[in-house]
Automatic annotation (TrEMBL):
Name the UniProt record assigns to this protein: SSD domain-containing protein
Gene3D superfamilies per UniProt: Multidrug efflux transporter AcrB transmembrane domain
Protein location: Cell membrane
A GO cellular-component term linked to this record: plasma membrane
Residue ranges of every copy of the SSD domain listed in the record: 244-361, 633-759
Naturally occurring in which organism (per UniProt): Methanolobus vulcani
Keywords: Cell membrane, Membrane, Transmembrane, Transmembrane helix
InterPro entries per record: MMPL_dom (IPR004869), Mycobact_MmpL (IPR050545), SSD (IPR000731)
Membrane topology: Multi-pass membrane protein
Principal location: membrane
SUPFAM superfamilies named among the record's database cross-references: Multidrug efflux transporter AcrB transmembrane domain
């Protein structure tokens, strides 16, 4: 620790000697960070849930998306009668415009079906003016997918499944423009929806929500600082200092290509709650040093020398708790961990260099009375401390300090009762944690009144669900009649025997349709039919001569069955593949959008447990390295383990579900909550070194540092509580449970920590006395023996 303080002392001298260059460098970094922030991309797709390196995702990406995958922008027209000629002509004008948009693979519309049939009947490729002719064509030839009833017409704009987000947005905007220019009759409602439209709208909502969360978090911090930091000058200064750290984080996010997702956008209110404490500590200490009568230069050097190492230790322990997030297989959780790690470092750097420098400058200016006329002169009243700063020893304890002392005293005097109840609640919570449900349907994460979501749900009600299990069939010859017959039999078996498989589609349907309902007996005949099929139809089911696609439609399985149900259904299909095995040499892989999300289940169950366990080990190891004392390393960790158990029980009894965000709670509790126990422990051993006994030292620590810890906890609670206002349920639920967990961590610091550390410290003291008495008795015996030997010699 002496070496570290020596390093920070030299750093303090550097800061004091280079105030202007530090401010200039900070301004330059802010400008660079704004440039980096322009590079931040939005992410809301499948790859935010599943690691791209996993076999499941690679099958989905390489075999499905690249070869067969498409996305569709759906234009849904609804009104009293969509069979009217003027409506169909407007739909045809939209069709002709949309099909010319770059990037559009195919457009299907009721108007094209009617024009094709009319051309066969009359030789004219137009929409008939006679309603009866139109009705006849619709009754005989119109697919239900394009016109499910007389009040709805569907135009589907098909894009490549691998289209970038920017390409999809360009096509969506062009489609919307084409719809406006098509001059639809006024009494019809036109809805542009589909998965691309929903994803784009969700990204826009995330951007808007991000700004609201940051603004609310800033306002809450203003309230906290104004209320609890009133004993220093420039009480709001820590806020702009931490915001500079946030700006640095935004810049790093862009340069490191970390996308903004539903999870990562929540990192910034969390960072404001954590980072403000770093700025407060430096601010408090420099004010304290100045109050003691030190010069400005001495105050800067002593502040960095003494506060820098303490804040750095807190940062390291917090980072060790967050580090376990990198073990998650869910990419958006990894990104969340990256942002938290980068953010706390940036906030520390901003507080250490910029915060101290600005305070140093403000104090210099205030002594010139330039700011004095604005009421910013130094207050002659005693500066009470905050968070990690020593509180005046002589003042009369207030109600909060008395209450904290009473809580710790009661818990120390009843250790068996307190620890037994806490332990039982922890064990019960850990058990209940296994019963907490898992929610991974992205539609439930977004604002439920979002127009794009309502449109998508409305489309599902009209057209039915579109979830699929996609079976990629690898073969040496995709025209083998035996293989096609097997596909036909297997598809019929799955649709008939599995209630959630509604229908199937494959190349077999097209072959049978072209051959009077039968599959030919020779490969040559099958190949001849393939050659006659339009390329667009073939490409949907065939790739080269070796791959065939079989789609099993499972409707609204994601919302009806959930991921666990889909996983069970896929397992049943896998068993059926073994029972109704394909011809020799044929390999079948089950993939698709729904299947990829199945991997999230294991990531959020076994993955989150491993994250928490690793966080515990890392925090313990970090404390052991720093303190080289098993008691000092073990006590904070034991306290936080109890809080982790309580948190699991709280989630179960409040009916919350695990999401990619709440799965990070274990790591967050360890990272944030350990700091409170460490602060209490530091003060406890400081009192012990002064000669106080265990109970007396704990009482003194509760009074002298307790109020500061509660204040520090409140700043964190207020920072986290901004998340509750998010329109995204995944974020607001995370905000609720994290606020509860921080409160639990504070409670554990004053109720659970005291009996643990006092009991273990007493036990260690007894063992030390025991070994010392044995050593002394052994020394006495050897002295007697030595005297006898000397007497005999004489």
């Amino acid at each position: 620790m002496f070496i570290i303080k020596n390093i920070f002392q030299k750093l303090g001298v550097f800061v004091e000697d280079n105030t202007v260059p530090i401010i200039m460098i900070a301004l330059l970094l802010i400008i660079i960070s704004f440039q980096g922030a322009q590079l931040i991309g939005m992410a809301s797709g499948t790859d935010t849930f599943v690691e791209k390196s996993s076999k499941l995702y690679q099958d989905y990406d390489h075999l499905y998306l690249n070869l067969f995958g498409t996305e569709s922008i759906v234009v849904m027209v609804e009104g009293s009668d969509v069979t009217k000629p003027e409506l169909l002509k407007a739909l045809d004008r939209a069709y002709l415009s949309v099909q010319n948009i770059p990037g559009v693979v195919e457009v299907t519309s009721p108007s094209t079906v009617i024009k094709e049939v009319n051309y066969q009947m009359t030789g004219r490729s137009t929409i008939p003016d006679d309603p009866q002719t139109i009705d006849g064509i619709i009754d005989s030839s119109m697919p239900s997918a394009l016109m499910p009833d007389n009040t709805h017409a569907i135009m589907s704009v098909v894009l490549e499944g691998t289209s970038s987000d920017s390409t999809q947005e360009e096509i969506l905007r062009e489609t919307e423009t084409s719809i406006e220019l098509a001059n639809f009759p006024a009494d019809y409602n036109i809805i542009v929806t589909g998965n691309p439209a929903f994803s784009i709208a969700m990204n826009e909502e995330m951007n808007t929500s991000m700004g609201i969360l940051l603004l609310l978090s800033i306002l809450l911090m203003v309230v906290v600082l104004y209320l609890v930091f009133k004993h220093v000058r420039w009480r709001l200064l820590p806020l702009p200092i931490v915001l500079v750290g946030i700006i640095f984080t935004f810049g790093a996010m862009g340069f490191l290509n970390i996308p903004m997702s539903m999870v990562s956008m929540s990192a910034f209110p969390v960072l404001i709650g954590l980072g403000i404490d770093y700025a407060i500590q430096f601010h408090n200490r420099i004010e304290e040093e100045l109050e003691r009568g030190e010069t400005d230069e001495e105050a800067v050097i002593d502040t960095i020398k003494h506060t820098g190492p303490a804040v750095l230790i807190a940062l390291i322990i917090t980072a060790l708790g967050f580090f376990s997030l990198f073990t998650s297989t869910v990419p958006m959780i990894q990104d969340f961990g990256k942002l938290l790690m980068i953010g706390i470092v940036m906030c520390f750097i901003s507080s250490l260099f910029l915060g101290v420098t600005v305070l140093y400058g403000f104090d210099k200016i205030s002594k010139w009375n330039i700011l004095g006329r604005f009421g910013l002169k130094k207050n002659s009243a005693h500066h009470e401390t905050h968070t990690h700063v020593i509180i005046d020893e002589e003042h009369e304890p207030d109600f909060l300090e008395k209450a904290l002392k009473g809580m710790s005293t009661f818990s120390m005097r009843n250790p068996i009762l307190i620890l037994s109840i806490a332990g039982l609640l922890c064990i019960g919570g850990l058990y209940a944690d296994n019963l907490v449900g898992i929610q991974t349907d992205t539609q439930t994460f977004v604002p439920q009144d979002m127009p794009a979501l309502l449109d998508l749900q409305h489309m599902g009600e009209i057209l039915g669900g579109s979830d699929q299990l996609n079976l990629i069939i690898k073969t040496d010859d995709n025209s083998d009649p035996e293989l096609l017959k097997w596909i036909d039999e297997f598809s019929a078996h799955e649709v008939a025997g599995r209630s959630h498989i509604q229908d199937s589609s494959s190349i077999v349907d097209l072959v049978k349709e072209a051959n009077s309902g039968k599959i030919p007996d020779s490969s040559d005949e099958v190949q001849a039919i393939y050659d006659q099929l339009p390329e667009m139809q073939k490409d949907a089911y065939l790739n080269g001569n070796s791959i065939i696609m079989l789609n099993l439609n499972i409707g609204n399985a994601m919302s009806e069955l959930g991921l666990e149900g889909i996983e069970s259904l896929s397992n049943v299909v896998q068993e059926d593949l073994q029972w109704m095995a394909p011809p020799p040499g044929v390999h079948v892989t089950i993939t698709g959008h729904s299947m990829v999300y199945v991997e999230v289940i294991s990531a959020l169950t076994s993955g989150r447990v491993f994250m928490t366990m690793l966080g515990i080990v890392l925090v313990f190891a970090g404390l052991l390295v720093i303190y080289r004392d098993i008691l000092k390393a073990l006590t904070p960790v034991l306290t936080m383990i109890i809080v982790v158990g309580w948190s699991g029980g709280l989630m179960y009894y409040t009916g919350m579900e695990y999401t990619p965000m709440t799965a990070t709670l274990g790591a967050l509790i360890l990272g944030v909550g350990s700091e409170y126990a460490i602060l209490m422990m530091e003060r406890y051993f400081e009192e012990r070194e002064k000669g106080a006994g265990p109970e007396e030292a704990m009482q003194e620590a509760s009074v002298k540092i307790g109020k500061a810890i509660v204040t520090s906890g409140l700043t964190t609670v207020f920072g986290f509580s901004a998340l509750i206002a998010s329109p995204f349920s995944i974020t607001s639920n995370f905000g609720v449970i994290t606020v509860m967990d921080v409160i639990l961590a504070l409670l554990a610091t004053f109720v659970i920590f005291p009996p643990i550390i006092v009991t273990l410290d007493k036990y260690r003291e007894k063992r030390r006395h025991f070994h010392q008495s044995h050593h002394n008795s052994g020394s006495s015996g050897s002295n007697i023996l030595k005297s006898i030997q000397e007497a005999i010699t004489q």
